[in-house]
From TrEMBL:
SUPFAM superfamilies: Protein kinase-like (PK-like)
Catalysed reaction, written as an equation: L-threonyl-[protein] + ATP = O-phospho-L-threonyl-[protein] + ADP + H(+); L-seryl-[protein] + ATP = O-phospho-L-seryl-[protein] + ADP + H(+)
Domain of life according to the entry: Eukaryota
Family, similarity comment: Belongs to the protein kinase superfamily. BUD32 family.
GO molecular function, one term: ATP binding
Signal sequence annotation: none
Name of the molecule in the record: non-specific serine/threonine protein kinase
UniProt GO BP: tRNA processing; tRNA threonylcarbamoyladenosine metabolic process
Organism field: Rhodotorula graminis (strain WP1)
Assigned EC number: 2.7.11.1
Amino acid sequence: MTLSTSAAASSTSSTSPLPAATAEPPAPVDILLKHRFPKRYRHPTLDAQLTRQRLTSEARALVRCAKAGVRVPGLRLVDVKQGCLGMEWIEGWSVREILGGGQEDDLTSDDDEDERVEDVGNDLGKMHTADIIHGDLTTSNMMVRLRTGDSAGANAPPFEVVLIDFGLSSASPMHEDRAVDLYVLERAFSSTHPVAPGGRAHFDLVLEGYREALERAPKKGEWDRVWKRLEEVRMRGRKRSMVG
Ligand SMILES: Nc1ncnc2c1ncn2[C@@H]1O[C@H](COP(=O)(O)OP(=O)(O)O)[C@@H](O)[C@H]1O
Ligand SMILES: [Mg+2]
Protein backbone atom coordinates (compact mmCIF):
# COMPACT_ATOMS: atom_id res chain seq x y z
CA MET A 1 0.00 0.00 0.00
CA THR A 2 1.22 3.52 -0.71
CA LEU A 3 0.21 6.62 1.05
CA SER A 4 0.50 10.08 -0.32
CA THR A 5 -0.93 13.46 0.46
CA SER A 6 -2.21 15.99 -1.94
CA ALA A 7 -3.77 19.36 -1.48
CA ALA A 8 -7.29 19.30 -2.81
CA ALA A 9 -9.74 22.13 -2.89
CA SER A 10 -12.25 21.66 -0.12
CA SER A 11 -15.38 20.22 -1.62
CA THR A 12 -18.42 22.32 -2.33
CA SER A 13 -21.83 20.85 -2.93
CA SER A 14 -22.52 20.18 -6.59
CA THR A 15 -25.86 21.94 -6.27
CA SER A 16 -24.42 25.15 -4.85
CA PRO A 17 -23.91 28.02 -7.29
CA LEU A 18 -20.38 28.69 -8.47
CA PRO A 19 -18.62 31.22 -6.29
CA ALA A 20 -18.53 34.71 -7.67
CA ALA A 21 -15.32 35.53 -9.51
CA THR A 22 -14.32 37.93 -6.78
CA ALA A 23 -14.88 35.46 -3.91
CA GLU A 24 -11.92 33.95 -2.12
CA PRO A 25 -11.15 30.45 -3.43
CA PRO A 26 -11.80 27.76 -0.84
CA ALA A 27 -8.78 27.02 1.32
CA PRO A 28 -6.95 23.88 0.16
CA VAL A 29 -7.11 20.92 2.52
CA ASP A 30 -4.69 18.03 2.74
CA ILE A 31 -6.00 14.61 1.90
CA LEU A 32 -4.31 11.25 2.19
CA LEU A 33 -4.50 8.91 -0.78
CA LYS A 34 -4.27 5.26 0.17
CA HIS A 35 -3.45 3.16 -2.83
CA ARG A 36 -3.18 -0.59 -2.80
CA PHE A 37 -0.78 -1.82 -5.42
CA PRO A 38 -1.48 -5.12 -7.16
CA LYS A 39 0.37 -7.95 -5.38
CA ARG A 40 2.29 -10.00 -7.92
CA TYR A 41 2.37 -13.09 -5.73
CA ARG A 42 -1.43 -13.34 -5.78
CA HIS A 43 -3.62 -14.52 -8.60
CA PRO A 44 -4.76 -11.32 -10.38
CA THR A 45 -8.46 -12.09 -10.03
CA LEU A 46 -8.15 -12.88 -6.34
CA ASP A 47 -5.94 -9.83 -5.83
CA ALA A 48 -8.44 -7.51 -7.52
CA GLN A 49 -11.24 -9.00 -5.43
CA LEU A 50 -9.32 -8.56 -2.16
CA THR A 51 -8.35 -4.99 -2.99
CA ARG A 52 -11.94 -4.12 -3.81
CA GLN A 53 -13.19 -5.78 -0.66
CA ARG A 54 -10.72 -3.99 1.64
CA LEU A 55 -11.32 -0.68 0.01
CA THR A 56 -15.10 -0.89 0.26
CA SER A 57 -14.89 -2.20 3.85
CA GLU A 58 -12.67 0.71 4.77
CA ALA A 59 -14.86 3.32 3.07
CA ARG A 60 -18.04 1.88 4.57
CA ALA A 61 -16.57 1.67 8.08
CA LEU A 62 -15.28 5.26 7.92
CA VAL A 63 -18.73 6.54 7.04
CA ARG A 64 -20.52 4.42 9.65
CA CYS A 65 -18.02 5.32 12.37
CA ALA A 66 -18.35 9.03 11.63
CA LYS A 67 -22.13 8.70 11.89
CA ALA A 68 -21.78 6.92 15.24
CA GLY A 69 -19.59 9.76 16.59
CA VAL A 70 -16.32 7.79 16.49
CA ARG A 71 -13.31 9.94 15.64
CA VAL A 72 -12.08 8.78 12.23
CA PRO A 73 -10.67 10.61 9.18
CA GLY A 74 -13.41 12.04 6.97
CA LEU A 75 -13.87 10.08 3.75
CA ARG A 76 -13.11 12.21 0.70
CA LEU A 77 -12.81 9.92 -2.31
CA VAL A 78 -13.39 6.31 -3.33
CA ASP A 79 -12.03 4.94 -6.63
CA VAL A 80 -12.62 1.21 -6.61
CA LYS A 81 -11.24 0.75 -10.13
CA GLN A 82 -7.89 2.33 -9.27
CA GLY A 83 -7.88 0.81 -5.78
CA CYS A 84 -7.63 4.26 -4.24
CA LEU A 85 -9.19 5.83 -1.16
CA GLY A 86 -8.95 9.52 -0.24
CA MET A 87 -9.40 10.64 3.33
CA GLU A 88 -8.79 13.57 5.62
CA TRP A 89 -5.11 13.95 6.49
CA ILE A 90 -4.54 13.60 10.23
CA GLU A 91 -1.68 15.83 11.30
CA GLY A 92 -0.11 14.09 14.26
CA TRP A 93 1.56 10.94 15.48
CA SER A 94 0.57 7.35 15.99
CA VAL A 95 -0.23 6.25 19.54
CA ARG A 96 2.66 3.83 19.14
CA GLU A 97 5.06 6.74 18.65
CA ILE A 98 3.55 8.68 21.54
CA LEU A 99 3.70 5.80 23.99
CA GLY A 100 7.14 4.83 22.81
CA GLY A 101 8.37 1.42 21.89
CA GLY A 102 8.99 0.25 25.42
CA GLN A 103 12.31 2.00 25.99
CA GLU A 104 13.20 2.75 29.60
CA ASP A 105 12.84 6.50 29.19
CA ASP A 106 9.41 6.09 27.58
CA LEU A 107 7.99 4.89 30.84
CA THR A 108 6.22 8.05 31.75
CA SER A 109 2.58 8.40 32.57
CA ASP A 110 0.41 11.38 33.22
CA ASP A 111 -3.27 12.00 33.85
CA ASP A 112 -3.80 13.63 30.48
CA GLU A 113 -2.37 10.63 28.66
CA ASP A 114 -4.53 8.29 30.76
CA GLU A 115 -7.61 10.27 29.81
CA ARG A 116 -6.82 10.05 26.10
CA VAL A 117 -6.38 6.28 26.40
CA GLU A 118 -9.77 6.11 28.12
CA ASP A 119 -11.23 8.14 25.24
CA VAL A 120 -9.97 5.44 22.87
CA GLY A 121 -12.00 2.89 24.82
CA ASN A 122 -15.03 5.12 24.61
CA ASP A 123 -14.71 5.38 20.84
CA LEU A 124 -14.25 1.62 20.55
CA GLY A 125 -17.43 1.15 22.56
CA LYS A 126 -19.32 3.46 20.20
CA MET A 127 -17.81 1.66 17.22
CA HIS A 128 -18.87 -1.77 18.48
CA THR A 129 -22.33 -0.48 19.40
CA ALA A 130 -22.63 0.55 15.74
CA ASP A 131 -21.77 -3.10 14.86
CA ILE A 132 -18.38 -2.26 13.38
CA ILE A 133 -15.42 -4.51 14.09
CA HIS A 134 -12.08 -2.87 13.35
CA GLY A 135 -10.14 -6.05 12.67
CA ASP A 136 -6.63 -4.67 13.28
CA LEU A 137 -6.60 -2.72 16.52
CA THR A 138 -2.98 -1.84 17.16
CA THR A 139 -1.40 1.32 18.49
CA SER A 140 -0.07 2.06 14.98
CA ASN A 141 -3.66 2.28 13.79
CA MET A 142 -4.53 5.10 16.18
CA MET A 143 -3.36 8.63 15.63
CA VAL A 144 -3.12 11.49 18.06
CA ARG A 145 -3.66 15.02 16.83
CA LEU A 146 -3.98 18.47 18.25
CA ARG A 147 -7.61 19.46 18.49
CA THR A 148 -8.55 22.23 16.14
CA GLY A 149 -10.74 25.30 16.64
CA ASP A 150 -14.35 24.13 16.46
CA SER A 151 -13.87 20.63 17.89
CA ALA A 152 -12.37 22.12 21.04
CA GLY A 153 -14.70 23.22 23.81
CA ALA A 154 -13.46 25.59 26.50
CA ASN A 155 -12.31 22.76 28.76
CA ALA A 156 -11.51 20.25 26.03
CA PRO A 157 -8.14 18.56 26.29
CA PRO A 158 -5.68 19.70 23.63
CA PHE A 159 -5.26 16.26 22.03
CA GLU A 160 -7.59 13.66 20.60
CA VAL A 161 -7.17 10.14 19.26
CA VAL A 162 -8.39 9.25 15.78
CA LEU A 163 -8.84 5.61 14.69
CA ILE A 164 -7.47 4.70 11.25
CA ASP A 165 -6.89 1.71 8.96
CA PHE A 166 -10.28 0.03 8.58
CA GLY A 167 -9.17 -2.19 5.66
CA LEU A 168 -9.80 -5.35 7.70
CA SER A 169 -13.02 -4.14 9.27
CA SER A 170 -16.32 -5.95 9.12
CA ALA A 171 -19.91 -5.49 10.20
CA SER A 172 -20.92 -7.72 13.08
CA PRO A 173 -23.04 -7.51 16.22
CA MET A 174 -21.39 -10.64 17.72
CA HIS A 175 -19.91 -10.39 21.20
CA GLU A 176 -17.23 -12.84 20.17
CA ASP A 177 -16.02 -10.52 17.37
CA ARG A 178 -15.99 -7.56 19.73
CA ALA A 179 -14.02 -9.52 22.31
CA VAL A 180 -11.44 -10.63 19.73
CA ASP A 181 -11.09 -7.01 18.55
CA LEU A 182 -10.35 -5.96 22.15
CA TYR A 183 -8.01 -8.88 22.75
CA VAL A 184 -5.88 -7.91 19.74
CA LEU A 185 -5.49 -4.45 21.28
CA GLU A 186 -4.71 -5.88 24.71
CA ARG A 187 -1.89 -7.91 23.17
CA ALA A 188 -0.63 -4.88 21.25
CA PHE A 189 -0.46 -2.78 24.43
CA SER A 190 1.17 -5.46 26.54
CA SER A 191 3.80 -6.40 23.97
CA THR A 192 4.96 -2.92 23.02
CA HIS A 193 4.01 -0.49 25.77
CA PRO A 194 4.91 -1.46 29.30
CA VAL A 195 3.30 0.55 32.05
CA ALA A 196 5.14 3.17 34.08
CA PRO A 197 5.77 2.20 37.70
CA GLY A 198 2.66 3.19 39.63
CA GLY A 199 0.82 3.89 36.39
CA ARG A 200 -2.34 2.18 35.21
CA ALA A 201 -2.26 -0.45 32.48
CA HIS A 202 -3.32 1.12 29.21
CA PHE A 203 -5.74 -1.65 28.43
CA ASP A 204 -7.50 -1.23 31.80
CA LEU A 205 -8.07 2.40 30.90
CA VAL A 206 -9.37 1.40 27.48
CA LEU A 207 -11.81 -1.01 29.11
CA GLU A 208 -13.02 1.70 31.47
CA GLY A 209 -13.92 3.99 28.58
CA TYR A 210 -15.35 1.06 26.64
CA ARG A 211 -17.57 -0.01 29.51
CA GLU A 212 -18.93 3.52 29.90
CA ALA A 213 -19.83 3.65 26.21
CA LEU A 214 -21.59 0.27 26.33
CA GLU A 215 -23.49 1.18 29.47
CA ARG A 216 -24.74 4.34 27.74
CA ALA A 217 -25.97 2.30 24.74
CA PRO A 218 -29.71 1.56 24.50
CA LYS A 219 -29.23 -2.22 24.65
CA LYS A 220 -28.64 -3.31 28.24
CA GLY A 221 -26.22 -5.97 29.51
CA GLU A 222 -23.85 -5.61 26.56
CA TRP A 223 -20.81 -4.85 28.67
CA ASP A 224 -21.25 -8.03 30.77
CA ARG A 225 -21.55 -10.16 27.64
CA VAL A 226 -18.46 -8.72 25.98
CA TRP A 227 -16.47 -8.97 29.23
CA LYS A 228 -17.42 -12.64 29.61
CA ARG A 229 -16.36 -13.31 26.03
CA LEU A 230 -13.10 -11.46 26.50
CA GLU A 231 -12.27 -13.72 29.44
CA GLU A 232 -12.90 -16.73 27.21
CA VAL A 233 -10.81 -15.34 24.37
CA ARG A 234 -7.97 -14.63 26.80
CA MET A 235 -8.15 -18.19 28.06
CA ARG A 236 -7.97 -19.56 24.54
CA GLY A 237 -5.02 -17.27 23.84
CA ARG A 238 -3.17 -18.51 26.91
CA LYS A 239 -3.80 -22.14 26.01
CA ARG A 240 -2.55 -21.53 22.49
CA SER A 241 0.62 -19.86 23.69
CA MET A 242 1.28 -22.77 26.09
CA VAL A 243 0.94 -25.27 23.25
CA GLY A 244 3.32 -23.03 21.30
N1 LIG B 1 -5.64 9.79 7.48
C1 LIG B 1 -4.34 9.73 7.75
N2 LIG B 1 -3.65 10.86 8.03
C2 LIG B 1 -2.32 10.83 8.27
N3 LIG B 1 -1.57 9.70 8.28
C3 LIG B 1 -2.19 8.53 8.02
C4 LIG B 1 -3.59 8.48 7.73
N4 LIG B 1 -3.92 7.19 7.48
C5 LIG B 1 -2.78 6.50 7.59
N5 LIG B 1 -1.74 7.28 7.92
C6 LIG B 1 -0.34 6.86 8.17
O1 LIG B 1 0.01 5.81 7.30
C7 LIG B 1 0.30 4.61 8.02
C8 LIG B 1 -0.25 3.39 7.27
O2 LIG B 1 -1.66 3.56 7.04
P1 LIG B 1 -2.72 2.44 7.37
O3 LIG B 1 -4.07 2.94 7.00
O4 LIG B 1 -2.53 2.03 8.80
O5 LIG B 1 -2.32 1.28 6.35
P2 LIG B 1 -1.60 -0.15 6.52
O6 LIG B 1 -2.64 -1.12 6.09
O7 LIG B 1 -0.42 -0.09 5.63
O8 LIG B 1 -1.22 -0.32 7.97
C9 LIG B 1 -0.35 4.83 9.38
O9 LIG B 1 0.28 4.08 10.40
C10 LIG B 1 -0.18 6.32 9.58
O10 LIG B 1 1.12 6.63 10.04
MG1 LIG C 1 -2.03 0.26 9.71
